[in-house]
Fold this protein.
Amino acid sequence: MLSISNLRAEVDGNEILKGLSLEVPAGEVHAIMGPNGAGKSTLSYVLTGRDGYDVTGGTATLNGEDLLSLDPAERAAKGMFLSFQYPLEIPGVPALTFIRTAMNAQRKARGEPEVSAPEFLKLAKATAASLKIDFDMLKRALNVGFSGGEKKRMEIFQMAMLSPRFLILDETDSGLDIDALKIVSDGVNAMRSPDRGMLVITHYQRLLDYIKPDRVHVLSAGRIVESGGPELALELEREGYDKYARAA
Amino acid sequence: MAAVKQTVEHVESLEKYKHGFVTEIDQEFAPKGLSADIVRFISAKKDEPEWMLQWRLDAFERWLAMDEPTWAKVDFPPIDYQDAYYYAAPKGKDGPMSLDEVDPDILATYEKLGIPLREQEVLAGVQGAPRYAVDAVFDSVSVVTTFKKELAEAGVIFCSMSEAIREHPELVQKYLGSVVPVSDNYYACLNAAVFSDGSFVYVPPGVRCPMELSTYFRINAENSGQFERTLIIADAGAYVSYLEGCTAPMRDENQLHAAVVELVVLDDAEIKYSTVQNWYPGDPETGKGGIYNFVTKRADCRGDRSKVSWTQVETGSAITWKYPSCVLRGEASVGEFYSIAITNGRQQADTGTKMIHLGANSRSRIISKGISAGKSSNTYRGLVSAHPKAKGARNFTQCDSLLIGKTCAAHTVPYVEARNGSSVFEHEATTTKLSEDQLFYAMQRGLSQEEAVQLLVNGFVKDVLQELPMEFAVEAQKLVAISLEGSVG
């Protein structure tokens, strides 16, 4: 599925990723944990092709296809989805319009026909219900005036609607109370499937109580410095990142 | 982002202004330059009565004594008013024609522009032919006006100004210049002297005009100006919705478009006036060529409870100098101004509105959305004033500016004057930059850069677009997208 090898990237001339390698096989959920400034968000932006995040070496492929030469939209059409740590407000564009435009853009890029209005509405209604989102909220401008929790729920809603092949969740638990965290996690867990991979980026172990990872990796100073099973997350929770910070 | 850059470059290399073609037809010109004789020439060409000629000559005298206004935030070399043609008309039969008599090349031009001139097709519901009446003005003359018969049955007069001067002199004499006086300003005064054609609409008391009316202005001739004059009168209790569209060929010289639009609204009447302005904006790199759009538009809400709504989508012209205004004379009269002004390349726009509250309890609303990209400059200039007698006047103004890129400018210059203690004026203004974050967010969801800009901009202008008549809103939305192609790189 997702295969990253010796990836190097810089922002404004500062090297942030310093030879990162990682394999996420289909059907698995991997967690990336690490101290602030380790390069967690940079990894998510590099994988999705954000401007200003310059790759200086290494490779990243999805099912064997090179990602790094594609623009963000092309990567999205290939199935890469990033749930943003800070989702953006889009004034004047209703959430449903935004998602439908995105869905059709992806379909067009893949040579598929556009989604019909009834088909889209049916899917949106069912998805909203499963995430306990009030359907009227989807008619409002995307994320404008939404609370932190509502914005995160909208990210999961978009994810469920677009049905991507690979998900990156960047600090999805930040700003969520316990009820919202449960709803969001249920939404993410519902998307687990044998042909889909997930990368869960988080600072705290808390989220991993709800979204159980198959593997946990510690990212420090731009490299994966340790990998293990779910128990590694618990150990980090107890002991903190100090030892890795020193090691780096 | 190599692929994105490629796309942007590809789009940039396309000819963005798709209305830039020239129609090769035989045309008749007045001699170059401007003088009392030229004014007489134009009047004679139109077979005008003596009073009209005198009106023009008087305007010309006054114009000679006036100076060009310099207060707008626009910059251009001095205009040589002697180096232009003030009358250009397709050769052929004078006066209004039936469709069969119109030069096929001209018909083809309108077809190419997507303007329906064939009533039968419109009536027969031919695909893509919306049902609205059109007055087609080609350079200095109106070549055809559709649906006149059906409109006449409802009592509505819709014809070219030249025809109105001949056929309805009593109405023209009563209202012409009554909203925009001859010497109102430099360009309006020039227009009064040399105006060539334009549309005339009269909707009698209590009549709701049975269809949308529209005028389509096309500048075709080289080195010529277009000076049309439009007069719309909604008598007591009448309603009419009117739309104007405009395009011109791509040329290296600047061409002057100095139009005057007068709206008269009597008791309980309403006029909805929409503009989709897409004059050639000039070369985006060098700034060469393009239309100088120096236009005076004003509505006089003479009647109690009368209402005027201006909606404009301004995407073209090298320079725009335009302030569609409302004189809210009647009690409880209402003025509205909804504007989208887009500048890209080297365009300059100084546009806005004046809401002059004279009547008690008059109300006005201004929603202005300015978008600047490229190396352009976009200024909103507006005046809201209340006379001592305009007790209880209310205004709400919202002025939003959106900047795309780092080399454009947006300015907001609101003037507010309340001369009584009971008026309530509200003003809100925002300036935002189309953020990289928003663009990336939309692109991560699968939108190309162009699509992302379009979606974000459409969100920004939505409040105004929804004020346009349906069939034009779609066009306008496309136009907005085309105007901003290649603006992010």
